[in-house]
Amino acid sequence: MKIKLDLKDKKILKILDKNARASVAEIERKTGIQRDSVVYRIKRMKKFGIIKFFHTVLDPVALGFPVYAFVNFVLQNMSETCEKSFINFLKSHSNVVYVAKTTGKWDFTINIVAKDLKHFDEILTEIRRKFSKIIKDYEVSSIIEEIKYDHMVDLV
To answer: How far, in Å, CA of 85 to CA of 79, rounded?
Structure first.
């Protein structure tokens, strides 16, 4: 179900996209939308899943994780149980910061952060050993520089 957003909703979303911690008073001041309306609109957008959550975007390099890479997997002989086990393992691994089931050549894409290349290799080897029966192929793409990081606010 597509939810219609009006100009006021879009103004609120633009402010929250730049600073998810913006107070209701700050949003009111910057948009001219009354406080009660700001609160109502944010609650409504959360209720309908337009706003899924608020989060901080961290810099892995500044936190001591300069190795930041995507790993794409092709899987084989995969039962529903194996797939759930694979997903749950990836979701619970602290160095796996992104997991997506994909279409096309790759079945899954994950993002791993690591302290160095040896640490990265240990993490990838752990995944490959644990799921050797279902991993048919994989490919690593290291991120050199993020050019664009967008949360789609300009599309609404």
So the answer is: 10
Kind plus residue range of the DSSP H or E element containing 141: strand 135-142
Range of the domain at 16: 7-47
At 98 the pLDDT is: 95
Place of tokens 């797939």: 83
CA distance 79 to 76: 9
Quote the CA–CA distance of 82 and 73 in Å, as a whole number: 14
Cα 149 to Cα 15, 42, 57, 145, 153, distances in angstroms: 16, 23, 10, 11, 11
82 burial type by CB count under 10 A (0-12 exposed, 13-18 middle, 19+ buried): middle
In total, how many domains does the chain have?
A: 2
Give the model confidence (pLDDT) of 106-118 as tens digits: 999 999 999 999 9
Domain assignment of residue 115, yes or no: yes
Straight-line distance from the first to the last Cα atom of the chain, in angstroms, rounded to the nearest whole number: 15
- For residue 15, what is the domain's CATH number? 1.10.10
Under 8 Å between Cβ of 56 and 50: no
CA neighbours within 13 Å on the CB side: how many for 13? Answer: 21
Task: Answer whether residue 156 shows pLDDT above 70.
Answer: no
